UniProtKB/TrEMBL annotation:
Keyword Heme recorded: yes
PANTHER family reported for this sequence: HEME OXYGENASE
CDD domains noted in UniProt: HemeO
Source lineage: Bacteria, Bacillati, Actinomycetota, Actinomycetes, Kitasatosporales
Protein name according to UniProt: Biliverdin-producing heme oxygenase
InterPro entries per UniProt: Haem_Oase, Haem_Oase-like, Haem_Oase-like_multi-hlx
Length: 225
């Protein structure tokens, strides 16, 4: 008998498999499909980018206090930070006074609040949110960038799509591999299976929070028939 079959799955496999269904749901949301299908105008893309700014502010403000944390600390890497890139994109999309009138949708506010709460009270939950966003940005985010450049004419990897460009990660595939190793290493710092399950559940919640944002964006930018 192949011994690999009897091995329990690694944590990175567990979290990826457990969130697979939610991933498909988020990916195939009406808003995402319309965005990737080139059917929305640049205002919808700008509105989406604004929502990301609120979420990443929560992720990256929250990261400060977690740098030394044994569970979340190893995940916090400066090369992932996105807020500065989002701000450059927003200045391009909305103009120099991009902050004026910037508003979080209710679903975005709820999402950011949950990230903040995890950052303050539960490092394992913070990791679930970190994984859901940054590994996604390094993966499907690249597809979104390509489509955005083509649809709205942004310069390749330039203003408007800098959020998707990780200048300091030369080899995203290798980075993702090492990130998955960090996830697998949680076995040591989080030996409790129940706590690991809670982290997986938080990841599913993170996907659901993203889907809720897409739903509200979809309502704001319905396609004219
Ligand atoms: C249209 C939108 C999307 C597309 C086309 C897409 C596409 C992909 C693809 C192709 C991968 C696999 C990459 C690989 O195996 O290296 C991936 C992974 C991932 N995506 Fe997405 N995705 C989208 C939306 C999202 C959203 C909204 C989230 C969550 C906020 C997300 C989170 C993730 C995560 C966490 C992974 C890593 C899975 C793992 O290897 O553990 N994706 N995505």
């Amino acid at each position: 008998m192949d011994s690999a079959i009897t091995q329990p799955p690694t944590f990175s496999t567990l979290i990826r498999t457990a969130s697979h269904e939610q991933h498909t749901e988020a990916e195939s949301s009406t808003f995402m499909s319309d965005l990737l299908g080139g059917r929305l105008d640049v205002r919808a893309y700008a509105r989406y980018t604004e929502q990301l700014w609120f979420v990443y502010r929560a992720l990256e403000d929250g990261a400060q206090a977690l740098r030394e944390d044994p569970v979340a600390g190893p995940f916090i890497r400066p090369e992932l930070a996105r807020v500065a890139e989002l701000e450059r994109d927003l200045a391009h999309l909305r103009g120099a006074d991009w902050r004026a009138g910037l508003a979080a949708l209710p679903a975005t506010a709820a999402y950011a609040a949950r990230v903040e709460e995890c950052a303050r009270t539960w490092p394992g939950g913070y990791v679930a949110h970190h994984y859901t966003r940054y590994l996604g940005d390094l993966s499907g985010g690249q597809i979104i960038r390509g489509k955005a450049e083509k649809t709205w004419g942004f310069d390749r990897k330039g203003d408007g799509v800098r959020f998707y460009v990780f200048e300091d990660i030369a080899n995203p595939a290798a980075f993702k591999r090492s990130y998955r190793e960090l996830l697998d290493g949680l076995d040591v710092v989080v030996p409790d299976d129940l706590e690991k399950q809670r982290i997986v559940d938080e990841c599913k919640r993170a996907f659901a929070l993203n889907t809720a944002v897409f739903r509200e964006l979809g309502a704001e930018f319905p396609l004219s028939a």
